[in-house]
Amino acid sequence: MWNFFAFIGEVSFFGLKALVDAFRPPFEWEVFIYEIEEIGWRSLPLILAAGFALGVVLSMHTRGTLVQFGAEALIPTLQSASFFNELGPLVTALLVAGRVGAGIGAGLANMRATEQIDAIESLSVDSFKMLVVTRIVACILILPMLTVFMDFASLAGGFLAEHLASHISLQLYLDRAFKTVEWANFIPPTLKTSVFGFIIGTVSGFFGYTTDEGSEGVQRAATNSVVLSSLLIILVDVILVKAIFFLFPRNAL
Amino acid sequence: MSDPAAVEFQHVFKVFGNRKVLDDVSFKVNAGEALCIMGRSGTGKSVTLKLMIGLLKPDSGRVCIDSEDIAHSSEEDLSRVRRHMGFLFQSAALLDSFTLGDNLALPLRRLDKSKSPSEIKRAVDETLERVGLDLDIAKMPAELSGGMRKRAGLARALVLHPKLLLVDEPSSGLDRITASEIDDLLLKVKKEYRATLVIVTHDVRGARRVGDRIAVLDQGRVIGFGTATELDKSDHEVVRRLVSES
What we know:
The structure holds 2 protein chains of 2 kinds.
Chain A: H1 2-22, H2 29-40, H3 44-68, H4 75-113, H5 116-121, H6 127-166, H7 170-178, H8 183-191, H9 193-209, H10 214-247
Chain B: E1 7-16, E2 19-29, E3 34-39, H1 45-52, E4 60-65, E5 68-69, H2 75-82, E6 85-88, H3 100-111, H4 117-130, H5 146-158, E7 164-168, H6 176-193, E8 196-200, H7 204-210, E9 213-218, E10 221-226, H8 228-232, H9 237-243
Parallel strand pairs in B: 3-8, 3-9, 6-7, 7-8
Antiparallel strand pairs in B: 1-2, 1-4, 4-5, 9-10
Helix pairs in contact in B: 3-4, 3-5, 4-5, 5-6
């Protein structure tokens, strides 16, 4: 039990140190831009494809139920509410945890095993700032943007499914989808993914950067990064949803 | 008064967990000399190199580079000392996400802020030409063979024209011909740059060829120090066996 708390303390300190270092010059712009591309741009196809497919599936599932009550007009509303409030942020974070978290964990562990981190340090470059801080900040900034893409890809998927089933026009679908959406439904849930980004960057950065187990550590870092990031995202989501309901009571209605 | 030593270890101790890796190690490397450090696996050879460049700190004792104790110096002072050092890692340690050219440009950008981008490019081109990789400047490390990676790692270590070059296992994982080519490069560097070399190696042939003197480490202690011919006559059996070519 003591080990568990010591571990949580270590990871928390690691993440807080990264946040403090993010505001301390010199800034690693070149590496940061590379990470934005690596984490954001390269995740985009996965996010768009997953969002579109989930939109289709959710639309098909809800249609079956709502038709029984003559409420199929609510399908676009339900679709946008589900994705903007919860599914978009959560699924985006879990997908990024799988793709990017494993990549960060394995990548840093491999750099440790092949002495690349020592090589950076031997040039008097702060390897933590160069390799960890850039990745964490990139995750924090990229997650909300990817979430927006996920939300709109899901609406596109939902529209396609509805159009094929009921020949609904795009105009009408969008009117219904956005009828009940307010900024308070969209902005806080989207921005909460920055916290998920922080979790993914910190946890995977911690496992990758601190490993000292050679090539065996690479696999372990990748697995641990994905498992712990995903678990923490789901647990922290409960707290964040509660916080959003507290700050924006209309969202809870 | 004699010239100050390029590298001097004074009663250095280093412990990892409950394992004593270096146990009261003292030796000097003269400027312009090539010292090869030999010993069985796990006797602290690579740790010795990492202490020299400040990647590790000793638990006690002094590690002096050009008379400056880097074990107790600030990051700024360490950075200034490193400006004159190069390190060839065992695995070459080229950054995977950088091209070969960017790998070489990194030390120039970080440790020599006076150079303009065009000067950096020229320095990178010249250094790559020196090690025979001038046509591979845009390649990623994954596209290079083992020997090429080693030469690229050497090029990165040389790009700042170091006065002190630290080399960890230059021949590991290489065939005898490629290893000999790397030794040729090290000899060329020693002559042209008038650099001091400290080389950790298991390759007796290379050590006798490149090294002016050889230090033998065993169980964290220096058990032999001298020229290859002197060590051939050592009373210590481990020393004789390690430096023997047969």
